[in-house]
């Protein structure tokens, strides 16, 4: 398993981590992802460690804390072998202060995650989303305090826009506070918006990407092709019916799946393996978060590493997945000699 440096820190993480959105399945949304119990989770963790994958990503809101509890039990007795990543900000109760990035909520959220995970520290603690009502200085000051207290090793964010992240980095620099070293962002062959602003920012400011949903909300599993209905139970169907997942034009989807099918026949690799391997060739990407309902899916996704697509194969996927960027990014592409994009 390859390890890459995490942003501007001295910390290294494996190129794959196991996401635990499938652990618990306590509500309609997460139940569509999976319902992994402690016994199965323990088995999945063992398989990961055998393969050199020692990073596990979770969040307090995953199945209302149940995912963290299951992960904590699954790593019991082997905490020193693993890297734990979790997130907070989203609502975890009915009260007015049970949501957001205020000092009140983040301190309680961190303590809750530590308790559920059964550990005294979190290796990477991330804000799950941007809270526009809490001053950035308050959120970063709280995270810095958690780092100084030894409860958190490194901090990151998730689902921030470019200005959210850049303003946060500037405030950290101005006040000498802990700095974001990672941005957990949606990035896939079907969702390349990350490349327009967040990738150049990450390169300039040394903030690594942790890519979530690398299979485009289940669209790139190899089960979806032209003229076929959606599977009755899938993360994609859940995304559409419950969470309003990102819409994708059908023809664009089929162009990408056609390209994946062609490369699968050519390389002997599966569509998911190819989609994940493509991500691992992109600038700023330190880690891709994989999910698995069971051992078979996990072993399939682990097969995405240990080999690399050729530059010609990457170019075919780039062409099939290309989309016209939003303004001002399409305009900036006309000034490439002074404003080159990180990837075409």
Characterise this structure.
The protein is of the alpha/beta class. The chain has a single domain, classed as TIM Barrel (Alpha-Beta Barrel). The chain is 40% helix and 15% strand. The strands form two sheets. It has an eight-stranded parallel β-barrel, surrounded by six helices. Strands 1-2 form a two-stranded antiparallel ribbon. Helix 5 links the parallel strand 6 and strand 7. Helix 2 packs parallel to helix 11. The model has no long low-confidence stretch (mean pLDDT 93).
Sequence-ordered SSE layout with sheet pairings:
Layout: E1 3-5, E2 12-14, E3 16-19, H1 28-33, H2 38-51, E4 55-57, H3 66-74, E5 83-88, H4 103-117, E6 122-127, H5 136-148, E7 152-158, H6 162-175, E8 180-186, H7 198-205, E9 208-212, H8 235-243, H9 250-267, H10 271-280, E10 285-290, H11 295-302, H12 311-321, H13 329-332
Mean pLDDT score: 93
Looking at CATH, the homologous superfamily is NADP-dependent oxidoreductase domain
Distance N to C terminus: 28 Å
Large-scale geometry = globular
CATH-level-2 architecture:
Alpha-Beta Barrel
For the biggest sheet, the summary is:
8 strands, parallel, barrel
How many domains? The number is: 1
Cα-based radius of gyration, to the nearest Å: 19 Å
Structural class: alpha/beta
Widest sheet, order of strands: 3-4-5-6-7-8-9-10
The total of helices stands at 13
Based on DSSP secondary structure assignment, what is the total number of beta strands? 10
- CATH topology-level fold name: TIM Barrel
């Amino acid at each position: 398993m390859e390890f890459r440096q995490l942003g501007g820190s001295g910390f290294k993480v494996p190129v794959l981590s196991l996401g635990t959105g499938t652990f618990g399945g306590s509500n309609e949304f997460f139940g569509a992802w999976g319902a992994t119990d402690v016994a199965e989770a323990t088995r999945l963790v063992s398989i990961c460690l055998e393969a050199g994958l020692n990073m596990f990503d979770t969040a307090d809101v995953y199945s209302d804390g149940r995912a963290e509890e299951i992960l904590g039990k699954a790593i019991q007795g082997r905490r020193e072998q693993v890297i734990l990543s979790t997130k907070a900000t989203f609502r975890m109760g009915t009260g007015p202060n049970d949501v957001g990035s205020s000092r009140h909520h983040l301190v309680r959220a961190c303590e809750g995650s530590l308790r559920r995970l059964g550990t005294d520290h979190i290796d990477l603690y991330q804000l799950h989303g941007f809270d526009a009502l809490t001053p950035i200085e308050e959120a970063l000051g709280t995270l810095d305090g958690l780092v100084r207290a030894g409860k958190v090793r490194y901090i990151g964010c998730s689902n921030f826009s470019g200005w959210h992240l850049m303003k946060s980095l500037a405030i950290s620099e101005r006040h000498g506070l802990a700095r974001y070293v990672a941005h957990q962002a949606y990035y896939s062959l079907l969702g390349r918006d990350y490349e327009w602003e967040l990738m150049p920012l990450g390169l300039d400011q040394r903030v690594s990407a942790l890519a979530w949903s690398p299979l485009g909300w289940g669209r790139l599993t190899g089960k979806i092709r032209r003229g076929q209905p959606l599977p009755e139970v899938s993360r994609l169907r859940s995304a559409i019916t419950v969470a309003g997942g990102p819409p994708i034009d059908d023809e664009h989807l089929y162009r990408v799946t056609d390209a994946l099918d062609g490369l699968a026949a050519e390389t002997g690799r599966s569509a998911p393996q190819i989609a994940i391997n493509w991500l691992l060739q992109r600038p700023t990407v330190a880690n891709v978060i994989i999910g698995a309902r069971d051992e078979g899916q996990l072993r399939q996704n682990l097969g995405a590493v240990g080999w690399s697509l050729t530059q010609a194969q990457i170019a075919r996927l780039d062409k099939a997945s290309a989309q016209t960027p939003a303004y001002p990014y399409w305009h900036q592409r006309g000034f490439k000699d002074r404003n080159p994009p990180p990837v075409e």
